[in-house]
Amino acid sequence: MWQQVVDPLGSIWLSAVVAFLPILCFLLCLLVFKLKGYQAGFITVIVATLIAFFIYGMPFSLIGASFVQGFAQGMWPIAWIIIAAIFLYKLSVKSGSFEVIKQSVISITPDHRIQVILIGFCFGSFLEGAIGFGGPVAITAALLVGLGLKPLYAAGLCLIANTAPVAFGAVGIPIIAMTNLVGVEQYAVSAMVGRMLVPLSLSVPFFIVFLMDGFKGVKETFPAILVAAVSFTGTQFFSSNYLGAELPDIVSAIVSLACTTIFLKVWQPKNIFRLDDKKDFSNQQKLELGVIVRAWMPFILLIICIVIWTQPWFKALFAKGAIFDYTQVTIMFNNIQSGIVDPNGKAVGLSLPINFIALQAGTAILLAAFLTIWTLKIKANDAGECFWETLKEMAIPCITIGLVVAFAFIAKNSAMSATLGTALAQTGQAFSFFSPVIGWLGVFITGSDTSANLLFGPLQQVTARELGISEALFLAANSVGGVVGKMISPQSIAIACAAVGLVGKESDLFKFTLKYSIGFILLIGIWTFIIATMLGAIIPEIVPLVK
What we know:
With 547 residues, the protein is mainly alpha-helical. The protein has helices at 12-31, 37-54, 60-94, 97-108, 112-130, 135-146, 151-161, 169-182, 186-196, 198-242, 248-264, 289-295, 297-309, 312-316, 360-375, 380-414, 416-425, 431-446, 449-467, 471-485, 490-499, 506-534; strands spanning 2-3, 329-331, 340-341, 347-348, 352-354. It is built from 22 helices and five strands. Strand 3 and strand 4 form a beta hairpin.
């Protein structure tokens, strides 16, 4: 058995500098050398491999297994979700439904600023709560490009809009997985996340409009954006505090979308802002309800499939020993003679469980696509053409995603990630500021708030106990910090570029979002420090998990 060493150089800060080198390499490849995403990912994997082998002493067989484990995770379920989502979108375009969708959104408002809030923020939040794993950014960015936004702009705005719901994404998995790991009930952490997110969720819609049209745009759209922001934030706060981690995104998105749409029936901005040349909407064709419903059918079917896929009774059908047990597949690295244990002697698994439940989002989207073909009577040749185009367009992005996740697994299994987190944990009382930074760093590395929570949740818990601060705050801070790391995660960047046809332009999108991500994480760090030092009364008591 090979045991991880968190401090291989005898100085935690020196070890942290070395552990940071692969990340620095990735940043330089994208920002300085302007390499394509897959090229940057490949070089980063090489650098991480060399450091894992020569500095951390990780056997090459385990590095190889970690690479395979990460690359496979990048394909299943992440690439699977993206391919299914883009296929569904292309079917909508091929059938002509998307033109009607555009008209239906324009009938609510032709203003691009508010359309981004309705699609990128509200609808994107629903998709994040339902499927996560990059699917929301892929679908909403593609929709906004179809509505007239430039690809890079649409992708960047959707990445920023996606921050508010990430902590409760994929039916609360980031929080539920972390609390199960550290042995506490989810409710206190869910409540604390909801309380910490109030400033962020409230400000994101205004910030998006500000990026699009400055203070003038915020002033002109203020009533509608206020309705969207307050309805979303209020519902997110209530549901996270009283219903748990599973439903905040889905409920908040539906309430916000409904409230904003109804409000826009009685109020519209005086000046219509467009990023394309379209100015005259007076001759806009009035659509019948049946036509609108038929056009939105691909996404209505998507919602229905996702809702069914997330039901406990449906998941139970695929549990071990149940009727569909044959869908359970596990890949074991039996040829590797040694395994990995962390510094505490706990085994680090190198198996790859691939099962129907793990693929629920991608499978649900693909089923929605097949139902769309049947419902809209799309010809088999047209559907096949859409699928082939999707595979061709997604080939390079999927390789990029696989390489990025492979690097994340090498960093995690070699203990490089733990080194970075442990170094920041040495900062004493200042850790209140750095606690969300660890989550931000974790999501940047892994591309997933769930992975970052699993990676650093135990570290946050131990540090909280040592400093005499409620565990709920630091566990929540890890997740909240992670949400703004999502917009610069290489995995998210690759997905967004793939969705809008900007493969090879990852460096441009990364440059667009980086400064905003850094600004947000600094504010979240300060907010966490204020809570820890001055607002301790709002931190809920955490309850150990009863097994």
